[in-house]
Design goal:
Blueprint lengths: L7 E8 L6 H10 L7 E9 L5 H11 L4 E7 L5 H9 L6 E4 L11 H9 L5 E5 L11 H18 L11 E4 H7 L8 H11 L1 E2 L2 E2 L2 E5 L15 H17 L1
Parallel strand pairs: 1-2, 1-4, 2-3, 5-9
Antiparallel strand pairs: 4-6, 5-6, 7-8
Helix pairs in contact: 5-7, 5-8, 7-8
Amino acid sequence: MEKQKFKLLSIVVPVYNEEKYLETVVSKVIAQPLPGGLRRELILVNDGSQDNSWKIMNSLPEKFSGINFQCINKRVNEGKGAALRDGFARVNGDIVMIQDADFEYDPADYPKLLQPILDDKADVVFGSRFIGEPHRVMYFWHQVANNILTTISNMLTNLNLTDIEVCYKVFTRNVADGLKLKSPRFGVEPEITAKIARMRLNGRRLRVYETGISYAGRTYEEGKKVNWKDAVSAVIQIIRFRLMD
């Protein structure tokens, strides 16, 4: 395959009340060298933030000249899934990546997330916080819940993933276009996984890779937003999008 097939990476960033971290995270995303001669565009989706996130977002194109920004302002908070759906609708790239607007995930992991796609070995790449890379020691029950959700998802999709709730997911453009997301909130993670398991390209199943990433999870005091209600919702979405949708 000609590696120059992929020229532009679209990075979709859902933002909700991230005034403390947003500009620094964007600066790290922009500073990270990309493999394969890729250029980048950033699609920032303000999901009804109640702080200064939208004001900061609007200042970024001037501060980081030469980078293509798209800034979307949603006046009502609808959730991560809705923000990703709106962001995906605006991508121009050959590859699409999800980036959270906080310090939990490190753009230094971009090269190993992108390389399987650039090498034509994968159509989708999941990061994983649980296969050997450094991570901040956090809440035990969060990991238990994630392991349960991932196991249920694997049973219903026949995939063998270790971390379906991870932020870092990377898709070729045709895969991203085919997802047609419906879940408005954190149920989007199992929805993406279920739809990837079902999707076909030219009559074949998608090639799914997983690679270890570093992780510095936040406490609730630091702004963590996922809670036990999201875990219950995720189970419902796993069943819905695998068996009913």
